[in-house]
Amino acid sequence: MTVQTQLPEYEPHETADRNVGFLLNDTARQMRTIFDRRMRDLGLTRSQWWVLNHLYFNEGLSQTSLSEILEIERATLGRLLDRLEAKGWIERRSVEADRRVKLVFLAGAVDPLLQTMRAVAADLRAEALANLSVDEQERFISTLIKIKNNLSTMVDNGNGTVGSTIMKDSRNG
């Protein structure tokens, strides 16, 4: 016997201008595009600043973990890391227990560039949030954190696919 499931009702007045997914994606895309342009003036590609930025917050990741976070193939990341290493901006260190595992660290030579990157990022955030009060900014960040946590929980629980939602609904209905 086939179980008929019904998708949840959606807001009939929803538009792309008010769709949370579109808004989050478009906002992030616009910020990346503007940051890209500003980093290009420093001679950095998006891939390079994206790696450096992740290492700034998560130094000492394995190459495998970094490729998963960045959602790029390990071979692609390896070539990118080769270029960053040649510039003296990163170091790869072997792990004693397993010489095949390489941990990635920022090198001291990249510090001035990172300071500039952080300042440009701070300026961009200030410009993007310019019309929000400090209280609105804090609420906005708290709300984004809650949304991110909800989505992470969904992924962790295997609820990241349409099928999982429909199956859950059919069991509850």
Can I get a quick summary?
With 173 residues, the chain is mainly alpha-helical. The protein has seven helices and three strands, in the order ααβααββααα.
Task: Explain what this protein looks like in three dimensions.
The model has no long low-confidence stretch (mean pLDDT 87). The chain has 7 helices and 3 strands. The relative contact order is 0.10. 61% of the residues lie in helices and 10% in strands. With 173 residues, it is mainly alpha-helical. α1 crosses α5. A hairpin with a 2-residue loop joins β2 and β3. A 3-stranded antiparallel β-sheet has the order 1-3-2.
User: Portion of residues in helices?
Assistant: 55-70%
Number of helices: 7
Q: What integer is the average pLDDT? A: 87
- What oligomeric state is this? single chain
Largest sheet: 3 strands, antiparallel
Cα radius of gyration in angstroms: 21 Å
Classification by helices and strands? mainly alpha
Extract low-pLDDT stretches: none
User: What sort of overall outline do the alpha carbons produce when their principal axes are compared?
Assistant: globular
Annotation, overall tally of beta strands: 3
How far apart are the first and last residues' alpha carbons, in Å?
16 Å
Name the beta content range.
5-15%
In spatial order, strands of the major sheet run 1-3-2
Would you list the SSEs in sequence order as H and E?
A: HHEHHEEHHH
